[in-house]
Design goal:
Oligomer: single chain
CATH class: Mainly Alpha
Strand order of the largest sheet: 1-2
Shape: globular
Helix content: over 70%
CATH architecture: Orthogonal Bundle
Number of helices: 8
Order of helices and strands: HHEEHHHHHH
Distance between the termini: 34 Å
Radius of gyration: 16 Å
Largest sheet: 2 strands, antiparallel
Length: 203
């Protein structure tokens, strides 16, 4: 779901960069430094998951796992995703440097929103409720990310309206797959390391 260089208008790029910088600053402020290894691992998971991608015009389709990252990190998903996207842009030319802010915002904001909206359900003692909430988190994180990518393209100009719709439709299978992956990962973590789901922030 990376947006390539030379596509977005300057106002969209500047706004995305400013909001991503603000979100990353908040995430770093909330980061408990004892959890840096966990954040690093999840950043690497995000990095690897989105390496295999299928180009669709100025964007692409691939696994994202931003819902899972959001469940485990909350607002700290912003700096974790930013680092992964920066490495992808530098090492593999996925996305780009000028679109880094917009791409980060499109991936990380849905992670944080799903974390706050679905956290009670994910932590529920009921396996059915927890699985359903976890699936919803994985599904909705990709849905919101797709909507934000489509909005970013649509705000750039009418020539990208058709591509914006295509990007959103193409991610429907990814939404379902990510929902299932997130649900099974949460179930597994609850069995072997439930404390990972108890997100705490530095004071």
């Amino acid at each position: 779901m990376h947006i390539s260089e030379g596509i977005l208008s300057s106002p969209v790029l500047v706004t995305g960069a400013a909001l991503a910088a603000g979100g990353s600053a908040v995430g770093l402020k909330k980061l408990d430094y004892e959890r840096v290894p966990q954040v690093s691992i999840l950043s690497a998971v995000f990095f690897v998951a989105s390496l295999i991608h299928v180009p669709i015009g100025p964007s692409s389709v691939h696994l994202i796992l931003n819902g899972l990252v959001g469940i485990l990190l909350g607002w700290v998903a912003f700096p974790a995703i930013l680092v992964a996207l920066m490495l992808q842009a530098v090492l593999f030319q996925f996305g780009g440097i000028t679109t880094l802010g917009v791409n980060c915002l499109n991936m990380a904001l849905p992670s944080a929103l799903c974390f706050y909206a679905l956290r009670p359900g994910v932590r529920s003692a009921s396996p059915i409720v927890s699985m359903a909430a976890s699936f919803a988190c994985g599904f909705c994180a990709v849905l919101l990310a797709g909507l934000m990518v489509a909005l970013s393209l649509a705000m750039t100009g009418r020539p990208f309206l058709a591509v914006a719709k295509l990007v959103l439709v193409a991610h429907v299978p990814i939404m379902i797959v990510e929902g299932l992956i997130t649900a099974f990962c949460v179930r597994f973590l609850k069995q072997i390391k439930p404390e990972m789901l108890e997100v705490t922030y530095a004071r």
